[in-house]
Amino acid sequence: MKITYNAPFVLTLTFLTVFVMLFDQFSGETIIHSYFTLHPYFDPYDPLSYERLMFYALGHAGWAHLLSNFTYILLIGPILEEKYGTRNLFVMSLITVIATGLLNLLLFPNFLLGASGIVFMMILLVSFTNVKKGYIPLTFILILVMFLGTEVLEAFQENNISEFSHIVGGIFGSIFGFAKNK
User: What is the pLDDT of residue 136?
Assistant: First the structure.
């Protein structure tokens, strides 16, 4: 048996994120905050603002945060990559990350980091993997209620979690699911 790089986008995203975490730890824990965290202000004349808007998903608050996100990504991602293709999954993830970042900048004065938006996009999108034209999968409805319903309720609690990015990711996963399965 041979080991295969079966899900190029998912595996590359995973390895890049782990590399960023390791690099941050070995460099005094300043890299993630400086380059892989979306700050609550956007300076259109600062190239770092654009970089952070695209790459905050690679930064995580710690190993527990990274592992909780990538447990889902490594579980669900290869299924989605097989169904939709590497390029499509990359584009859907990038759109989700940028849209979530822009909405966070417009609506909240918060720092943002982590791949949670991608996770929730994938959670809702995976419920469309075996859908037939003209049907809405019951699994989609149940996942929508369970995952996003919980996020809406938890949004009113004081914590350091961006339930908003989870909700936006889930919305984009739903949009992509309906759009790709017409």
Answer: 81
